[in-house]
């Protein structure tokens, strides 16, 4: 999908509504795996490329779903190692239900490597082409840091002003929670607050009901039984799903949303910003087709955002990742001449919904001296490039490579699972090889000591391997000390890295020489 030109494309915010047309819907099977797993679970001075400010074009067309010809023809797919039906469905832009139906699968959990699957044609209905918000209003992008979360919340008459939540055995205010989720997932806090008002009325209602207090965004317990109760879990769920829609559309060819209980599937309209796609996808979850239509209409989430923060398209940008984006020179995040273990191939930068922007390394500690898989390493993770430490928090260090201290501009590097002891301080200037901190299990979710490392540019998670990305959204692969990192199609955490002489494979253990990396 080419970058959106808001001057010519139909990314509009109509002032008048038209009568919704009667739709012919595509019937599909009701069973469908639709959601991502819960998350319990980023120069020398490189200047960020300038962003082009665009102006939207008004129109009277509300952009309702339109029936069109079948989207393409059926095709064949050969099952690869590590494939699951849900991953194949997501990558091919069809539903699990359609795959089951087209291939007469009696047990969708049983696939064989080399098995040939028929990939049916996609939905024949196109969803709304109404632009709800641009990319830089979903991503915590340049300009997001200027928004004062606490000042805004203090002026609201609703429950958000007094609400608290217990997170990691600490009591946080609603402002603390919104800020934390915005930083962790790199999602703009104004969108999170808009959803909190639209779904839970937390900004205007001082006394929401019990259900709205516990589940303000309406996300119930996960299919695995993990309860999404409380403000942090609700916002983290929403942020992860917003990211899933955004990055899957941009980098992994997500094409449609579904309402399997009603037998309805719709393709995303062409030309929509990825920010709108991410929001459309998130709003489709735990929703009816009719409810989703209302939510994505001009009187839905858009109207709430407009009332709270003004026109989201004021200051809209064409793209956060310009064509020809290059990565600055980086070294591996540990000292030269020391062998570490490459334990995790490309996976989510924060949460599985984000671009697979991260890779993992384990330090070369003597495990016979520790009593648990989670311990504070004796080895230091180090700076991959010159820059300034933009932020530190629980388990987190963010290295800002353009030196302005704002992790939402230019290139930034996220270090995760860094122990508080000996951790570098915010505001410090570092050079390649300077100590950042010791790997541990602190921060996010980890069941063993390691270092999680991810890239962002202008606040957007950048895939570690973009070899299979659509040509117009391709970004540079993660390269450190001449090691280039690659992933296996549809296989999160799986991958390999190569330099001019050798190849290493991501492997959690420490006994295989094929995952040992040094520079």
SSE layout:
Layout: E1 53-54, E2 66-67, E3 75-78, H1 85-92, H2 96-103, E4 116-119, E5 125-126, H3 149-154, E6 164-167, E7 170-173, H4 174-185, H5 189-200, H6 210-214, H7 231-251, E8 256-259, E9 264-267, H8 274-284, H9 289-295, H10 301-309, E10 316-317, E11 340-347, E12 358-362, E13 381-382, E14 387-393, E15 396-400, E16 411-416, E17 429-430, E18 435-437, E19 451-457, E20 460-461, E21 479-480, E22 483-488, E23 491-498, E24 503-505, E25 516-517
Antiparallel strand pairs: 1-10, 2-5, 3-4, 6-7, 8-9, 11-12, 11-25, 12-19, 13-18, 14-15, 14-17, 15-16, 16-19, 19-20, 21-22, 22-23, 23-24
Output the keywords.
alpha+beta, 519 residues, Glucose Permease (Domain IIA), globular
Could you give a short description of this structure?
The chain is of the alpha+beta class and 519 residues long. Helices cover 19% and strands 19% of the residues.
Report on this model:
- The chain is of the alpha+beta class and 519 residues long.
- Helices cover 19% and strands 19% of the residues.
- It is built from ten helices and 25 strands.
- It has helices spanning 85-92, 96-103, 149-154, 174-185, 189-200, 210-214, 231-251, 274-284, 289-295, 301-309, and strands spanning 53-54, 66-67, 75-78, 116-119, 125-126, 164-167, 170-173, 256-259, 264-267, 316-317, 340-347, 358-362, 381-382, 387-393, 396-400, 411-416, 429-430, 435-437, 451-457, 460-461, 479-480, 483-488, 491-498, 503-505, 516-517.
- The strands form eight sheets. Strands 11, 12, 14, 15, 16, 17, 19, 20 and 25 form a nine-stranded antiparallel β-sheet that branches.
- Helix 5 packs across helix 10 (301-309).
- The longest helix has 21 residues, at 231-251.
- The protein is globular.
- The protein starts with 52 loop residues before the first strand and ends with a strand.
